[in-house]
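Posting this for the archive.
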Amino acid sequence: MASVLDSRRLLAFSAVARLGSFTLAARELGLTQGGVSHALKALEQELGYRLFERGPRRATLTAAGSKLQGHVEKILQEMAAVRTELPQADDPAPRPARRRGAGAATLAAAG
């Protein structure tokens, strides 16, 4: 079975494809430019294709990147739909039981 693509890498890909800039994508995602660049290099290595032509001021999609873009947008839309539809489910997940004497630090470490 093929490995599943990392959603954080797909988000970075989508932002750079839409904005044409690693810096603007990083700002939108609340990451560093280096973090976005690293995510996209990892995605390119995983897929075995160069996804962007990197220029001094602009990143443009390669043919492989253009083909991937349509799939990524569908994936991200489906992920957003799950978050929208799940709150309407009849069986929400149970809240974790609070242990007696457990402070905030203990709960944060457990969760």
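The CA atoms of residues 5 and 47 lie 9 Å apart. The first strand starts at residue 52 and ends at 54.
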